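Help needed: design a sequence for this.
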């Protein structure tokens, strides 16, 4: 229990960072990316452009049994906590003042690793879907000014998830005031990104912490990846050649042009058996039982 200069009483679980659990791991990971120690306070400042940022700070407050106020400032939502025990414990875990370039990866127990990394992702990472070479590609990435933190992040991920490669690299940026700085960026794409998303988000329960905005992005990324990965090379080539989804192409040829399976096959230069598989796959036409009247009519007609 703490009193500020206006004698308002604040409560918080002073021992929150003493014992590992999923919520503690998440908030520690988030703090590694997007938290700071200023003097005798631990603070998180998140852009007020997104209501989900305020909601996350509320979740964190609840997890720490805290009634500290979340301030709406000119450009941010801020949660600032003053508690000597809490600060001492989190500093033992590597969260120090001016930590951006010197922070190291804490010794996170494996059972809470995904919670910690999900916190890191929500603090300073991204999940994106981009169009590359006429196809949608998903990616998930992280950035940090500390190369040691990023190298250990790669190491821990490699030990826990089936990932084939990564591209940790140095990047440079210039601030609006013309100040140059160096940071390190780590990206995973396609199957690697999908595997990492599953590791971070599969089987979450109502008590687990996450940023709603990123959670929605991972749902979209999964959908895009699964839609693409189930398509054969010829399926994708056909969509590119005719600048249309195979579903729309088949519907147009079958229902508007009145073509049958063999005629469609000749039109789009694939085997007729491929056309029938695609008709079933895209739900343009439901499969028929072999030997049924509908099946016989289709065979005789073709």
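Sure. Designed sequence:
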């Amino acid at each position: 229990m703490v009193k500020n200069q206006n004698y308002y009483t604040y409560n918080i679980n002073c021992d929150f960072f003493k014992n590992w659990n999923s919520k503690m791991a998440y908030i520690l990971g988030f703090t590694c990316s997007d938290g700071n120690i200023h003097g005798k306070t631990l603070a998180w400042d998140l852009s007020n452009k997104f209501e989900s940022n305020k909601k996350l700070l509320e979740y964190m407050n609840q997890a720490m049994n805290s009634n500290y106020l979340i301030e709406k400032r000119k450009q941010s939502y801020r949660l600032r906590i003053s508690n000597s025990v809490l600060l001492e414990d989190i500093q033992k875990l590597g969260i120090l003042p001016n930590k951006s370039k010197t922070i190291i990866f804490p010794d996170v127990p494996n059972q809470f690793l995904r919670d910690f990394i999900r916190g890191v992702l929500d603090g300073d990472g991204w999940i994106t879907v981009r169009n590359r070479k006429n196809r949608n590609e998903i990616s998930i990435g992280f950035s940090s000014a500390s190369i040691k933190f990023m190298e250990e992040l790669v190491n821990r991920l490699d030990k826990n998830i089936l990932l084939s490669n990564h591209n940790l690299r140095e990047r440079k940026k210039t601030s609006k005031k013309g100040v140059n700085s160096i940071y390190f960026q780590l990206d995973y794409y396609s199957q690697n990104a999908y595997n990492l998303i599953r590791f971070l988000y599969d089987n979450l329960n109502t008590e687990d912490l996450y940023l709603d905005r990123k959670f929605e992005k991972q749902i979209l990324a999964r959908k895009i990846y699964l839609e693409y990965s189930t398509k054969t090379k010829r399926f994708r080539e056909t969509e590119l050649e005719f600048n249309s989804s195979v579903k729309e192409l088949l519907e147009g040829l079958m229902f508007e042009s009145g073509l049958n399976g063999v005629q469609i096959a000749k039109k789009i230069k694939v085997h007729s058996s491929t056309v029938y598989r695609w008709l079933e796959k895209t739900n343009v036409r439901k499969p028929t039982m072999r030997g049924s009247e509908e099946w016989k009519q289709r065979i005789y007609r073709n």
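The chain has a mean pLDDT of 87.
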